[in-house]
């Protein structure tokens, strides 16, 4: 149980809902397979394969959104519609119009759906009700929003906000690169993307490349800003920070994973719990340190600050909706 990405949100701390109450409310939207005419279904599934929808390890919770999709490519429907349209044209003496083609595609979709293959996946979310964290293991905000939307449907209320910081990530990352030094506890790795604010959106990407040279500083002085920067925290976990405060390519290093082995877990469930406990403990250290590196957390009702980087360029820091 190791997350690969983090879309991080703020809950009220402490969160005034118990794990048992959350379990009952999630049960109202339990996952069910697609019906014959369903393109997709979503619902809450057990994170670890038992009957529980909220998996608890200490004061940390894990939930999982189950998603099933029918795989019916549009190209397949289009090809079948074109073949049938040729037969119709031969019978009626003219090609089907737009309305007739639309109805034909809808008919084919209904016919093919029950025979289409299905694909299942789980999207995991970690809840720290004490510190007020909710983090979704998703590579995009859109995928995370699927989880939040289903969670809102299951709960009576859900007070939630994206993280906002005093400094924009782009501004802070530019200063770290310009000065050749990361904030305390962090080191700069060798992956980075810089993008211009001009209309051409010119970009340069470095992969496994030293970032402390004049070349990178030259791009910064020319007005490019970092949109991604690889970092390591406390020699224990590495990740890529984005300009929108997403954490991607999260990797818990061997020094962390070896602690799971040292715990001596002797079955799959014990190993799962040990991994989850260790992961959440590390993330509970990372997130406050990252917020401090970005000047601290911005209050929910405060205006988004406009920050000027050391190079004088304005960062593309947009307030999340």
TrEMBL record:
Q: Which GO terms describe its cellular component?
A: bacterial nucleoid; cytoplasm
Please provide the Gene Ontology terms (biological process) for this protein: DNA recombination; regulation of DNA recombination
Organism per entry:
Pseudazoarcus pumilus
Question: Where mainly found?
Answer: cytoplasm
GO MF entry, a single one: double-stranded DNA binding
Could you tell me which InterPro entries the record lists for this protein?
RdgC
| Regions annotated as coiled coil | none
Q: Which family does it belong to?
A: Belongs to the RdgC family.
Where is this protein found? Answer: Cytoplasm, Nucleoid
User: Which keywords, in A-to-Z order, does the entry hold?
Assistant: Cytoplasm, DNA recombination
* Keyword Cytoplasm annotated: yes
Q: What protein name applies here?
A: Recombination-associated protein RdgC
What the protein does comes down to: May be involved in recombination.
